[in-house]
Design a protein that fits this description.
This protein has 144 residues and is of the alpha+beta class. The chain is 39% helix and 26% strand. The protein has a 4-stranded antiparallel β-sheet. Helix 4 packs antiparallel against helix 5. The protein is elongated and about 55 Å long. The termini are far apart. Keywords: Folate biosynthesis, Lyase. One of its GO terms (molecular function) is dihydroneopterin aldolase activity.
Length: 144
């Protein structure tokens, strides 16, 4: 009997394909806690010394072929996304996290065809004279 269950389940899945026509499907990719040492900040000293920031990204890529093919090459390479974020965050210094997030969002949208992108940059040790766990900025872009 145990051998019959997977076959029955597979048949149910095949039947469901017809029932799901017209449903909108999308894929959201999320990367949380990418830790990078960067040189962003308001003061010249902060940009010179640098600090660790954490980057979170979330982006919608529509319906990649991997939904059907199950092939890695038909979806987004998460490692490549992390490399692009690191390059953007480390190749130039920005005074504000807002600008950093906007540049990352633009690059992800253009390079990976993202429909919408949210980028959050956090400073776990912000250079302010009060006890704060972290400060963060979130920027989002959406195709119209």
């Amino acid at each position: 009997m145990a051998d019959e269950e997977p076959d029955e389940y597979d048949d149910e899945l095949e039947d469901d394909d017809d029932d799901e026509e017209g449903l909108e499907v999308g894929v959201t990719i999320e990367i949380v806690g990418l830790s990078l040492y960067t040189h962003h900040g308001v003061t010249a000293e902060e940009r010179k010394v640098g600090q660790r920031i954490l980057i979170d990204v979330r982006f919608d890529v529509g319906e990649p072929d991997a939904l059907i093919t199950d092939r890695v090459e038909d979806t987004i390479d998460y490692g490549e996304v992390c490399q692009v974020i690191a390059l953007v965050a480390q190749q130039q210094s920005y005074r504000t996290l807002e600008r950093l997030c906007a540049v990352i969002a633009d690059r992800l949208a253009s390079q990976f065809g993202a429909i919408s992108v949210t980028v959050k940059a956090s400073k776990p040790e912000p250079p302010i004279p009060l006890p704060v766990e972290e400060v963060s900025v979130e920027v989002w872009r959406e195709e119209r």
